[in-house]
Structure formats: C-alpha cells, structure tokens
Amino acid sequence: MANKIPRVPVREQDPKVRATNFEEVCYGYNAEEAQLEASRCLNCKNPRCVGACPVSVKIPTFVSLVAEGKFADAASVIAEDSSLPAICGRVCPQETQCEGSCILGIKGESVAIGKLERFVADWSRENGGVKPVVAPANGHKVAVIGSGPAGLACASDLAKLGYDVTIFEALHRAGGVLEYGIPEFRLPKDKVVAAEIAAVKALGVKIETNVIAGRTVTIDSLLDEEGFAAVFVGSGAGLPRFMNIPGEHFNGVFSANEFLTRNNLMKAYRSDYDTPIRAGKKAVVVGGGNVAMDAARTALRLGAETTIVYRRTENELPARKEEVHHAKEEGIQFAMLTNPVEVIGDENGWVKAVKCIRMELGEPDESGRRSPIEVPGYEFEIETDTVIMSLGTSPNPLIAKTTAGLETTRRGCLVADEDGATTRKGVFAGGDAVTGAATVILAMGAGRKAAAAIHKYIQG
Amino acid sequence: MYKIIKKEMLTPTICRMKVEAPRLASAALPGQFLIIRPDEQGERIPLTISDYSKEEGTVTIVTQQIGASTAEICAYAEGDSFCDVVGPLGIPSDFTEIPAEELAGKRYVFIAGGVGTAPVYPQVKWLHERGVAVDVIIGAKTKDLVIYKEEMEAVCDNLYICTDDGSEGFKGLVTAMLEKLVSEDGKVYDQAVAIGPMIMMKFATLTCKKLNLPVIVSLNTLMVDGTGMCGACRVTVGGKVRFACVEGPEFDGYLVDFDEAMRRQRMYNTEEREATEHHTCRIGRGK
After folding, report:
1. Between 20 and 30 A from A189 (CA), which of A91, A303, A372, B115?
2. pLDDT along chain A (460 residues), means of 10
3. Paired strand residues for B195
C-alpha cells in the first residue's frame, strides 16, 4: 500500500553550522526522494488539498506526474495556477492549507506537498523552465502597484490574458516582502526570487523600480495621463508598530522591518555591501510571528545570543511550527508569558536591558486565543544591547490619501470586495494592503482574483 | 540608471549635481527629498532636493562629504550614472498648501546652516515666485564654505551671511543674527524655517521660541527605505512617535525632541567610521 510509506524526511543544513551562515536551511528533495514521497498520494477523487490552496494548484495531478518522473509536465500543471512555485514551496504555511487538509494527515502524516512543489519548481528552473503560454496582445494597459506576491500574481495572470502590464515598485529591487522581509536562509534571493521574477517578466510584464505610487506618480495620473485602463494596488503591509513603552527610542531598538530590510534588501550581512546593521552581543526579539522568527534567526547569524519574548505561551505562537522548530534547533531562547514594560538605557542612550513582566493566560479574547494578563509585581530584567520589535504593521496611508474615492476601513486598510474591486472605479486591490499583514500565498490568491475581475471589467 | 548631467564643486567638500530623473522631477515640490543608491553595493542615502526642472527632467542635489557614502556620491563624475534615484519623498512644505492670497501677506525668514542652505533654495524660490517677502540667513564656518549666495540673492528680499570666523558678513551664529534682526532692527516675521545640522535647528528653535516666532524644521534622520516601512527615522514630536520619511521631514520645531533625534542620528557612528577608514573606492564599477 502506497500510504504505508512514511513521509520522506527532507535534508537540512546542520543547525550548528547554519546558525553561523545565511545559506538555505532546507536542501529540498532530490528526484528519487520526490518520486517516493509523491507515490504516497492517494489521488483522492475529491481532493481537499486543492480547495485549501488559495490559488487552487491542481495538486493531485502534479503529484501524480512527479511519481511518474514527469517533472516538466508537473511544472506545467503548477504554472497554470501559480507564478511563484519555488517561492510558495518554501514559504507557504502548508500545514494549515493543502497539507492540513490531506486525508493521509488524519491518521498519519500528510503528503509533503510543499516540498514536492519546491522540488518541481527547482527542477524546472534548472532544466529550462516552463515555456510561457501567452494570449495575443489585446491592446489594453494595466498598472500594478507593488512587485510583491500580490502584484506578481496579478501581473502574471493579466499578461497571460494578453494585457500590457507594468508593475511600479517603490524600492530598487522587485519582489516586495520576498526581497526585504524573508531572509536568504529561508528564501534565496538570486537563485529563487530573482529567477521567478524573471519568469514573470518573460510573460511580457514590465517592472519599473524606484516609482512610489502616491509620490512619484498617482493612481489618477496613471489612469488619466498614462493610458492605463485599470490599476491593481498590491502595496503591502505598511508601517511598523511599536509598543509605546518608555525607552523604546533608545539606540539599539529597531523594528523587525528595519532590521530585516537592512539585512535582506540591503545585504548588510555581506562585507562587500555598505549598509550597516547592528545585532549586538545579546538580542531580544519581541513578538511571536514568522517575522519575529526571521528577525531572531538573523540576529543569531550575525552573532547575537538571541531570545524571543512573547506574551502568550508557545502553543499560541502565530509563527509556523517549522520556523519555531528551526529557531529552537539553532539555539534561540524562548521566553514565553513575558511582556516588556520598559526599555532601559545606559548613560549614553543605548539599550542595556528590557524590563519585563510575567504574564498568565486568562479568558479567550475575540481572536479565540486566551488573553494574556499581567502577574502583578512579577517584574524582571533581561540584559541585552539590541531590541527588535516585531509587533506587526499598520497600513501605509499614502495611496489612500492621494487617490480620490478610495475608501479605507477603520484600521486604514483599503476597502475591497471579494474580487478586489475598491470603492474607486477601475482601481482594484489585494494582499496585505487590504487584509493587513498575512501570508505570501493569500496575497497571491487575492492578486489572481483581482486579475480575473480586471479582465472582466475591461472586457465588460 | 540615472545620469549625472552636470557636476560642480561648490567648495572643496561640497558638490552639486544635476541628475536625470524625469518622473521625480515632474512630481517634486519644495520641502521634499530623494534617496540615492549610488551602486549595487551602496547604501540608500537620503538627500534633500536643491532644485528640480520638469522641462529638463532633472533634479539637483548638493552633497557634503561627511561619511563613506556621501564621499562616494561626491566621487561620481559628470556623465556617470547612479544605480537608483527615488522620490520625491516626504510631505511638501506647508506653504505649498496655503492659498495664494493668504500666503501673499506673510513674511518668512529662513535660517540655513551649511549644506542645509541648498534645500532652502527651492523653498525661497517658490515663495519669491508667488510674491512672498522672504529674508534668508546663511550660516557657515568660514567664507569659503558659504554656498548658494548668488542664487539666493536672486530670489530673496534680504540675505544675511554669518560666519564663525567673521571672514564674511556677520561674525557669529545664525541665532544671534536672527535675534539681532528681530530685537534690534525691528524686523517682523510670521514664520521661520530652519534647515541645517540638527544642533543648529535645535538652537534656532530655542531662539525662535524666545522671539515668539513659529518655526518649521526639516529633520535629516537615519532612513533605509524612506517609504514608512522601516521606522529607522522615527522621532518624537509633541510626545508622539512620528516617521520623518512619510509624516515629515518638516515638523513644528517647538515640538521636536532634538536631543533624542541627535542621539538616534549617531546610531551607526562606529560602523560609519570603520567604513570611512576601510572604504575601498568602487567608482566606475557600476557602469
């Protein structure tokens, strides 16, 4: 029986070694391992995994092809629904999506769909890639704001339908969070991100960097002066949050966004790049999401003894289990039920400690998680010279402020319906700009939906 | 790539460059800034915009060699190109939003310190073109470091130059000059604008407070992306956290916590000093 085969483990870099470098942690499957793992798939008549995938990749079809060793065909099947498979195979939370709904997972271990997707994408890239299938040009121009997952997915689908698509990117490199946020050791920049973006460009998509929507151009100027028939806004998450506790502006306190942008986009970890970064000897990372894990593992690699401070318990950590597991393996300390109340500085204004208070879990709050409550009088200090705040983001108001008729929610996110249509005609939006900080794949799903809606709107 | 059309040295350490950036030039307004990344390995360096021409599609920057990065920018030659130039960033000066009729009656005084004189120029020019009375005080260490003298004379009502050593104009600080103008010469101003080193803006603000004169300052904080994403530029203004890149760079001087801002500005000083000492020139490799 196929399902008697245990899930094929994936090879990884030794934790002790990888804690000192920025090379990718996971090596991925080789062809033999991939075929064996793919053979575990039951090829369900009603595949729940497809429904659980935000971009509806035809999972059993591609997995069967992998089992048969038809890797190029498998890549073509994935390419019909996903423009960034090597990225998704690495950073999607498969355990809550495709793999989370795999029948095999009920009694045993689910098929390693993510690792298989990654294998197929990597194999395809190294063997010439998927030949793009693009409809003849239809003469309509569409502008996409932001070259992150939402924008790339939207642009790819529109280009395949024959649209003349230009992506406007505020930073100097395309990729959005894939470039500035997710570290090299989880998502290699040149090998994977740049290659998948090149594949999007091969569909005919143009990318103009150094253009800030709302400053360099406006949505109105794109629609009225530059002849774009529609605009998709996938501008991403926005401004980092801080705790508003005393001492938060001492030198040595950073947002996770700053810390990661310096390291990833600006490549501060490399001695041949100019941008400085400071992880100190001891770093405290505040927060429990994937970004907190990335920041902590980066600080560790830069030589800091690193502790993650989180106000709930390990069970409530919003980060992916795999990331938490990897962080622990690498030697990151986890101080749970701990919340900073003050950052303490030295006489020169540099951080020297974080004063924290012990927490305990009370009644469940509106998120369904038990809310943390302070234990009165139970305060203590953690000595540190670097504090990295990873508390999420609040929306960047720039585009909403400079575009008439574009409404925002009370929280400042762009208002958009199921298909991404905003309150302004011809303007669509998706990804973190609409939902607040979420995942790469949800942003891609939103980008694809909006592409379909834009197609309908223009052909209307 | 963004080509340097023209380069000139205003002083031995301050250079002026006119750079091709058509989209930026057609959107720029007084008070805004830009970011330059000279080459692939370079930092993103925020710089004020000293002038812009929609017709030519160019922006003008003025840079003083202070650290490794600014020295690198100054080492570029006419005809070379920068890898990246992005902007305009930040909110334009308040007065660009004031209706013309209301603005016409106002009297402005600008206090410019060192290389900060350059970004003062487009503001004064903009006001002058709209018939607003503008006086300008320029402060520099010595005569040879005074920049934008002729340009400024052409667009302001009165120009006052102060040097620390008295080699040109008034011997003393810009704050003393401002105090003299208001207290002794009976000048009346509705609004002051101070742009220069953080320490100068701090003391200019204190003087303005004493003279009961509202003052706007332009904060040159640390930045990485310049679009609000990183928070490196955060400053405390009126007790609240503000991001200089998207909510500034101009703020009400009375409300700025200058001491904190100056301390934060020095965050990477050790690293920068090392970079200056170990800097290997890479000019030319990006072309």
Report:
1. A303
2. 79 96 96 97 94 94 97 96 94 94 94 97 93 92 97 96 98 96 96 95 97 97 96 94 94 96 96 92 97 98 97 93 95 97 96 97 84 94 97 90 93 93 96 91 94 95
3. B112
> What are the beta bridge partners of residue B171?
B163
**Given CA atoms B21, B23, B29, B35 in this order, what sign does their dihedral have?**
negative
* Whole-angstrom distance, CA of residue B227 vs CA of residue A100: 37
Residue with tokens 């309150």: A423
Contact B15, B8 (CB under 8 A): yes
Question: From CA B254, how far away is CA B275, in angstroms rounded?
Answer: 35
Q: What is the H or E stretch that residue B210 is in?
A: helix B198-210
Of the candidate CATH numbers 3.30.565.10, 3.40.50.2300, 3.30.300.130, 3.40.50.80, the domain formed by B94-218 belongs to: 3.40.50.80
Q: Quick count: other Cβ atoms within 10 Å of Cβ B74?
A: 17
Alpha-carbon separation of residue A71 from A46, A79, A84, A112, B220 (angstroms): 23, 12, 16, 16, 54
One CATH from 1.10.10.60, 2.60.40.1220, 3.30.200.20, 2.40.30.10 for B2-90+270-278:
2.40.30.10
Residues of A in contact with B268 (CB under 8 A): 276, 278
Q: Write down the ipTM of this complex.
A: 0.92
DSSP A406: -
Question: What pLDDT, on a 0 to 100 scale, did the predictor assign at position B287?
Answer: 37
Helix (H, G, I), strand (E, B) or coil at A251: strand
CATH 3.50.50.60 fits A240-389, yes or no: yes
Which residues of B lie inside 8 Å of A (Cβ-Cβ)?
23-24, 27, 37, 41-44, 68-69, 72, 83-89, 224-225, 227-232, 234, 236, 241, 243, 246, 260, 263-264, 266-268, 271-272, 275
Q: Which of A240, A273, A349 sits opposite B41 (nearest CB)?
A: A273
Look up the CATH superfamily of A141-238+395-459.
Answer: FAD/NAD(P)-binding domain (3.50.50.60)
CATH topology of domain A2-126: Fumarate Reductase Iron-sulfur Protein; Chain B, domain 2 (1.10.1060)
What per-residue confidence (pLDDT) applies to B18? 97
Distance CA A274, CA A138 (A): 45
CATH 2.40.30.10 region(s) of chain B? 2-90+270-278
Identify which of B177, B230, B60 has the alpha carbon closest to the alpha carbon of residue A261: B230
If DSSP codes are grouped into helix, strand and coil, which group holds residue A292? helix
Task: Provide the b/e sequence for A84-107 (b: ≥16 CB within 10 Å).
Answer: bbbbbbbbbbbeebbbebbbbbee
Question: Using the beta-carbon criterion (under 8 Å), do A249 and B234 form an inter-chain contact?
Answer: yes
- Partner residues linked to B236 by β-bridges: B241
Cα–Cα dist A452/A418, whole Å: 11
Distance between CA A199 and CA A41 in Å, rounded? 29
- Specify the residue for token string 């004020």: B48
Using a CB–CB cut-off of 8 Å, the residues of A that contact B are: 170-172, 180, 209-212, 215-217, 236-240, 242, 244, 248-249, 251-252, 254-255, 257-258, 261-262, 265-267, 272-276, 278, 348-349, 396-398
In chain B, list all ranges with CATH 3.40.50.80. 94-218
For residue B271, what is the nearest residue in chain A, using CA coordinates? Answer: A276
Sign for the CA dihedral angle at A175, A181, A184, A185 comes to negative
Of B43, B232, B260, the CB nearest to A274: B43
Residue A379 and residue A356 in contact, taking contact as beta carbons nearer than 8 Å: yes
Hey, how many other C-beta atoms are within 10 angstroms of the C-beta on A410?
A: 5
- Test B84 with A272 for CB contact under 8 angstroms: no
